[in-house]
Design goal:
Blueprint (H helix, E strand, L loop, with lengths): L2 E5 L5 E5 L4 H8 L1 H6 E6 L2 E4 L10 E5 L3 H22 L4 E2 L4 E2 L2 E7 L8 H16 L5 E5 L1 H7 L4 H11 L5 H7 L5 E7 L2 E4 L13 E11 L8 E10 L2 H16 L2 H7 L3 E2 L10 E2 L1 H20 L3 E2 L5 E3 H7 L1 H5 L7 E3 L2 E5 L4 H9 L10 E10 L15 E11 L1 H20 L5 E7 L10 H18 L3 E4 L9 E7 L5 E10 L1 H5 L4 E2 L5 E2 L2 E10 H11 L13 E5 L5 H13 L4 E3 L6 H10 L4 E5 L1 H6 L1 E6 L5 E5 H16 L2
Parallel strand pairs: 16-20, 22-23, 29-30, 29-31
Antiparallel strand pairs: 1-2, 3-4, 3-5, 6-8, 7-8, 8-13, 9-10, 10-11, 12-13, 14-15, 17-19, 18-19, 20-21, 21-28, 22-24, 24-25, 25-28, 26-27, 31-32, 32-33
The structure holds one RNA strand.
RNA sequence: GCCGAGUUAGCUCAGUGGUAGAGCAACCGCCUUGUAAGCGGUAGGUCGUGGGUUCAAUCCCCACACUCGGCUCCA
């Protein structure tokens, strides 16, 4: 038998008999790898371990503890889920089941419109474990469209996917199922279960097992809300029991940070039913944090040469006709209010009003860039099922600015805005930023191609000049222009979209905005929409989760709590409180009605940055015992020293 | 808006076709406390709202509101 040679990732080559499989390559490297490998790549293309390699191929093996490996595990586990469901629910239809971040899902339609219950999930999971224990191989084969249609007769969703392959329209989720090309690949696990799939898959179900079914939810077939609603089962799968456990622990930790839970526990705000969905009331402790955030924002805008404006919450429908909002987004606006002199709407955005301010008198090029800033409260009629705590809300306040500038100023303005955004967000403890450029969706946009191109180029140029890397989201722009969205990573690595910088050639045209140039001629300004927090409410929610409720000292609702050890120390405690309050700090006292340990615990649960304990020693020496959040207790600190420490703590986090 | 699950004391949650319970919190006592829950007592609920079934509904049915998990949407 002739020998072939394959190239390994480390640059070495290995000689094997012709017709060897990827698994044989793994085995030739070592028995441990042969056991750990679940798939591989041949010349960069993903492949099953059973694939044969050819002379000169570059090959690599994929183990379960890599991102690619986990992806395969999850996809294979999704197949096991489908098999279990088809066995337990005769007549069930299955549609698609991809791997997703941390897990997988599979969509089904049950006979008679039945839905899955929690108990069903346990039964399905048990059946899945049987399938894993049965050590079923994943056997790949390729068929043509007609063979595929007969193989999946009685499975309308599968047949629809296959038909789309015939029509050459397979893409996205379909491609995951069938791959590209004329032939269709299928994977068979047993006599009664075969699924469309591009693969690759683990060689056998015994490579799986560290999974859990998480929840069941409705999902539209092909994501089309006019199409049928399927039943989606979500699961998670990992390479080891430990990795699975760690994932579940991470979920628990994230749940503890849930801003809705923290908002209630820390008495920050609430969503009274009487108020209506998606509307919040801010309690004193939430309101002070919000005020500090807003104060900081105002300070930075003032320093950044922005001009403050105020505009009303209501406007005549004519305004939103002019702006185009009624044309494009009437569905997202609160319904009209009929009044004797016309129809009024709650404002969904501040920009039309800022345009009116620009237009209120003649403008000179010497005034540009003109930066109008407002903490402007807007109302959007978000659909009932989309509301989500502070993150998706119907009444909210934008730290909104509209910048009017000349075409020549555009690039500089955007470049400096990028600095401004990053600088402000850093003050709130964010360090990781990701930039996205959203481009035009021809179906949902106003304005000419030329204008859009110009705006898109300006945004690209600015990011290139600034040296930030960015991703492009095709067709994700607002109707009036392309935008840069800025995502941040929070303390536990979750991604949040916060800031936005949007280029708009459209509104200046609609409002016929003009300035007088140095040539004495009238010109049309360009407009930038931008928000840093986005929505103050949403940003507050993100901050709550980011800090897990433990606001840094400069933002904490209560910065210091003074605890007299016993009633005899109350007077001294009051003196300490008075001194701190006089210094401008937010301080309170917990009287000696309860035992000290109890009061310390309460303060810790409230996540107060500093707990000061004062007793006999302190009264005698003019000191305090300092118990900082997350730090070591220190006795006998002079009040002056503590104030100094507090001042530097507050300053460190808030100064630029 | 769609699919599913929920809504019981301020909070977290038990519970039953015969008008309700715990822990924490609150309040009142006792304790006089040195770094994460001292002890005892009291009060607190039209069981989300409105209809219906029933001798009887917090429980079963319907509608609505709100919440949660997704889907869709997000200027």
């Amino acid at each position: 038998m002739s020998q072939i040679s394959v190239l390994l990732p480390d640059g070495s080559s290995r000689s094997l008999p012709a017709g060897s499989t990827l698994l044989a390559v793994a085995a030739s490297i070592g028995p441990r790898l042969a056991k750990a490998a679940i798939t591989g790549t041949i010349n960069g293309a993903e492949a099953d371990l059973s694939s044969t390699v050819s002379d000169g191929d570059s090959v690599a093996l994929v183990t379960a503890d890599s991102e690619a490996g986990r992806h395969v595990l999850r996809h294979s586990t999704a197949h096991v889920l489908a098999q279990a469901v088809l066995q337990l629910f005769p007549g069930a239809h299955f549609s698609i089941g991809p791997a997703i971040e941390d897990g997988f899902y599979y969509d089904f339609a049950l006979p008679g419109g039945r839905t899955f219950s929690e108990e069903d999930l346990s039964a399905i999971e048990a059946r899945m474990r049987d399938i894993v224990a049965a050590d079923q191989p994943f056997i790949r084969s390729e068929v043509d469209v007609d063979q595929a249609l007969s193989l999946f007769a009685g499975q309308p969703y599968k047949c629809e996917i296959i038909e789309r392959v015939r029509g050459g329209a397979a893409d996205g989720a379909d491609a995951v199922e069938v791959g590209g090309g004329d032939t269709i690949s299928v994977y068979r696990n047993s006599d009664d279960f075969v699924d469309l799939c591009r693969g690759p898959h683990v060689p056998s179900t015994n490579k799986l097992g560290h999974f859990a079914l998480m929840k069941v939810a409705g999902a539209y077939w092909r994501g089309n809300e006019k199409g049928p609603m399927l039943q989606r089962i979500y699961g998670t799968a990992w390479e080891s029991a430990l990795a699975l456990k760690e994932h579940l622990t991470r979920l628990e930790e994230a749940a503890k940070r849930d801003h809705r839970r923290l908002a209630t526990e820390l008495d920050l705000l609430s969503f009274p039913t009487e108020l209506g969905g998606g509307l919040a009331v801010w309690h004193p402790k939430g309101a002070i944090v919000r005020k500090l955030m807003e104060d900081y924002s105002r300070l930075r805008h003032q320093q950044g040469d922005y001009q403050f404006v105020y505009t009303p919450h209501l406007a005549n429908a004519n305004l939103f006709d002019t702006s185009g909002h009624l044309g494009w987004y009437a569905d997202g606006m609160y319904p009209p209010m009929e009044m004797d002199n016309g129809v009024y709407y709650m404002k969904p955005m501040n920009c039309p009003m800022h345009c009116l301010i620009f237009r209120s008198r003649q403008r000179s090029y010497r005034e540009l860039p003109l930066r109008l800033f407002e903490l402007g409260t807007v109302y959007r009629y978000e659909r009932a099922g989309t509301l989500h705590g502070l993150l998706r809300i119907r009444g909210f306040t934008q730290d909104d600015s509209h910048i009017y500038c000349t075409e020549e100023q555009l690039s500089d303005e955007i470049t400096s805005l990028l600095d401004f955004v990053i600088s402000v967000l850093r003050r709130f403890g964010f360090e990781d930023f990701e930039f996205n450029l959203s481009t035009r969706d021809p179906q949902k946009s106003a304005g000419s191609d030329e204008i859009w191109d110009k705006a898109t180029v300006a945004l690209r140029e600015a990011m290139n000049r600034h040296g930030v890397e960015y991703k492009v989201k095709e067709g994700d722009a607002a109707f009036y222009g392309p935008k840069i969205d800025i995502d941040v990573r929070d303390a536990i690595g979750r991604k949040w979209q916060l800031s936005t910088i949007q280029c708009d050639f459209n509104l200046p045209e609609r409002f016929e905005l003009e300035y007088v140039g140095s040539d004495s001629q009238r010109h049309r300004p360009i407009m930038l929409h931008r928000a840093l927090f986005g929505s103050v409410e949403r940003f507050f929610g993100v901050l709550l989760e980011h800090y897990a409720g433990a606001f840094p000292t400069w933002l904490a609702p209560v910065q210091v709590r003074v605890l007299p050890v016993a009633a005899s120390h109350e007077q001294y405690a009051d003196e300490v409180v008075e001194r701190l309050v006089a210094g401008g700090y937010r301080v309170d006292k917990s009287a000696a009605d309860d035992q000290l340990g109890k009061r310390i615990r309460t303060a810790k649960v409230e996540k107060i940055p500093y707990v000061l304990v004062v007793g006999d020693d302190d009264v005698a020496a003019g000191t305090v015992g300092v118990n900082p959040r997350g730090g070591e207790v220190e006795r006998g600190v002079s009040v002056d020293d503590f104030i100094q420490r507090l001042a530097s703590d507050v300053a460190a986090a808030s100064q630029d």
